[in-house]
Amino acid sequence: MQFQFKIISAESIDIVVPLVKKMSKPSITEALLLERFREMVSQNYECIGVYNADNLIGVSGLWFCTRHYSGRSVELDHVFIDDTYRNKGLGTQFINWIQDYVKSKGYEAIELNAYIDNEPSQKFYERDGFQKLGYHFVKVIG
Q1: How far is it, in rounded angstroms, from Cα 64 to Cα 86?
Q2: Number of domains comprising the chain
Q3: What single string gives the DSSP state of each residue in 41-56?
Q4: Order of all β-strands in the sheet with 55-67
Q5: Closest Cα to residue 106, out of 66, 54, 55?
Q6: Where in the sequence is the domain holding 63, given as residue range(s)?
Q7: Which residues, 6+ apart, have CB-to-CB distance to 132 below 8 Å?
Q8: Could you report the per-residue pLDDT of 79-135, keeping only the tens digit for each?
Q9: Residue 75 Cα distances to 30, 84, 109, angstroms
Q10: For 136-140, what is the mean pLDDT?
């Protein structure tokens, strides 16, 4: 299969909601995701899609920033490949494409968070050279 990786424009961001909904908590509705994505595209955020022909089958958000410990870095967010396309090497192709893309923009590190209970993704990222540096904590205050 021939896959394409391309940036999803801010105007087309709505197309990622069904895929991201598959990995979200049940309490996060599609309407809420849509609202959040429309806000995200106005910040230092880009979204990359994986396509099989014209079908969006994977997605990853990219948050661009500079960190004191890693320099110019990109944080991957909501990395998701549709179940049908997993375990076929597509995840590695996707991460490699992202790595080349962000490197071409002058960034020097890639970061991400993986859910504690998602051991398969943790193993995938470790095999790809990512290192565990700490824990990510969240406190909802609203």
Answers
A1: 27
A2: 1
A3: TTSSEEEEEEEETTEE
A4: 3-8, 45-52, 55-67, 71-81, 109-112
A5: 66
A6: 3-127
A7: 122, 126
A8: 999 999 999 999 999 999 999 999 999 999 999 999 899 999 999 999 999 999 988
A9: 23, 25, 9
A10: 92
